[in-house]
Fold each of these.
Amino acid sequence: MAKGDTVIEILNRLVDEIERRLDDEIDIDALAAALGTTGYHARRMFSSLAGMPISEYVRRRRMTVAAADVIGGDDLLATAVRYGYGSVEAFGRAFRSVHGVSHGDVRRDGGPLRSQPTLRFRLTVEGSSAMDARIIERPTFRLIGHAARAPLIHTGVNPRIQEHIAALPGEEHARLAALSNTEPGGLLQVSADVDPEYREGSELTYLHGVAVDVDAAVPADLDMIEVEAGTWVVFRTSGSYPAALQEAYAASASEWFPSNPWRLRPGPPIVAILERADDFSTATSELWFPIERQ
């Protein structure tokens, strides 16, 4: 990566490298490393900005290009292998999922086709308001509480998480709050084991709990996630819940990371609820991301 390359420049160069390898193996981690970043960061930024995982974009682009081979009468097995599929059947399923019709229909009728254009990322400068962010160093700490598996949902309330929290008795929230002894403070919403490409519907581990020092005694009935020492960026947001929080997630990818020399590192995003209305319609929250220098 050339000194000063932004997230936007890196993603555009990644798209160019993908385009050159549509009929070859594509190793996103290796490509990202060659561009001076990590596969983890590239996947998260791509998904947030493009609205689809890199793997989905690659599949759509391959099937867009493969359509010309199908129409041109190329051998179907050779075409399937060329684009990374071991059989005509697997290729056919991918082709139909993108175009909505079979390769046989397209070969006979020439369409209809749903093309995926080559993506190009651009930074739109709004300049309307600054993001309220702080960067801090934290030693190793632990997240303790009650964990459950839940689907990843990008917009709106997550019913599975809502059910999990609602099932906890009121006195348990108070017990957890009393155990908190380090930052992030207060009751926390933790997303762990998140799909690297941030695919909606993929499963994650959700933990409702608090942060404690690494030496703190952990009650036997609580789940625990140990968090490595490192740097964090913390965004504060207030307003309608969860809309304001989800807007902060989106703005971190579209505004803050493209403008700052930091990238995401592996670790659980954490939401700290600082204040909230009784009905949880509004809240003041902090959104914590583990980061490292770009």
Amino acid sequence: MEIADLPKDKKIILFDGVCNLCNDSVQFVIKHDKKDVFRFAALQSELGLKIIKHIGIDITNTDSIVLYEPGKAYYYKSEAALLIIKEFGGIYTMLRILTLFPKFLSNFVYDLVAKNRYRWYGKQESCMIPTPELAAKFLA
């Protein structure tokens, strides 16, 4: 898939495909994405790398989550996580209070978890392979 072929009506979550925490987070998003807003691609995938290059993010500094809205904007770290949760509605709207914290503080906490995610949650040898039922949510 090429950048021009990305769905314009979906928000794309780029995630670390070998990180257990990231994979669990993707499963969480899929479960709560009642409006079918999101599509997914591993940062390590060919498409993930194309998107990262296209938007000009240095993944040595941002290596765990990027939210990309094709043709509009991209977000990373805590801002991406909070914007993703915002789409769930319901009880999760209460988490919007976290946006009141200064970005440097929320990114500090985000970076602390991201830095230790393999040690705390483990790592897989390869990117997750979606089940046939979930395959449509993942971009190739």
Amino acid sequence: MALIALLPGDGIGPEVVAEARRVLDALALDLTFEEAPVGGAAYLVAGNPLPSATLALAKRADAILFGAVGDPQFEALERRLRPEAAILGLRRELGLFANLRPATLTPGLEDASPLKPEIARTLDLLIVRELTGDVYFGEKGRRTGLGGVREGWDSMRYDEVEVERIARVGFETARRRKNKLCSVDKANVLETSQLWRDVVNEVSGDYDDVELTHMYVDNAAMQLVHNPGQFDVIVTGNLFGDILSDQASACAGSIGMLPSASLSSWRSNLGLYEPIHGSAPDIAGQGIANPCGTILSAAMMLDHSLDLGEAARRIEAAVATAIVGGARTADIGGTLSTGAMGDAILAAL
């Protein structure tokens, strides 16, 4: 029996995680669930966005299903106590260094994409984002500069071991798809990116069967809306991956549709699975959030961490069938509630 840690978090997190749990229960798999607070919800009960008990559960679990963290009421706290510190802490403590973010247009959602339908239909890519380095984890601070002017500074850094590790995930992922890998950087102006490009080129020698290309991040952002069909697998750093994956989700029709997997070096099969959207506090509690990204994250969890690929395909097919049948929440042009969308997917399942 596999143990799943449920970390619903803040905002719409509990609502969408509940729908994913319903789908997993309907499959009657050999799973057991334990829930723990995280983010702002955890700060309210424990004074810490990542309590020791929550971290201990995450380390014991076979996989983690995560909702979202973040709430404006905590913005005045020092950074280490804000809800977002929880997900950064989980990434650091569990070695969650590789984030897989697929972006595919679900048939029937062409009108929800800002792209022309004929362009939107070509969207079928996967972004491999490095998660534990870059500017998010570099040294940072505030200081007073010349003339008493306030400055904020953040250090962007990678070492060659970190780049090689994520590059190999990119190449291995490309081998399971179409053998095409695009490495995105900003090597024309950033020394960090030049090291990135050098190491990716070195690693490519072990993957002669994978076609490697390089692209600057500003061009990649343009190409995602101009010709997304040219991409299969993109590998990139933490900052660029954060931005590009959100852009790709908009091309797919809604940020509420897309799942993600964060894979660990701490234990090979351990992963944290979450929708790529945030906590959306403006709609929390209204029952209108799209649960598809979380439900599809549960499918990725079954596939990557639990070796239950057949069950994962059933979930993916059920979501697609529900969408084609007209089931839609407000973000993709419909009127269904969160629960009603879950009902439609369960009916398709």
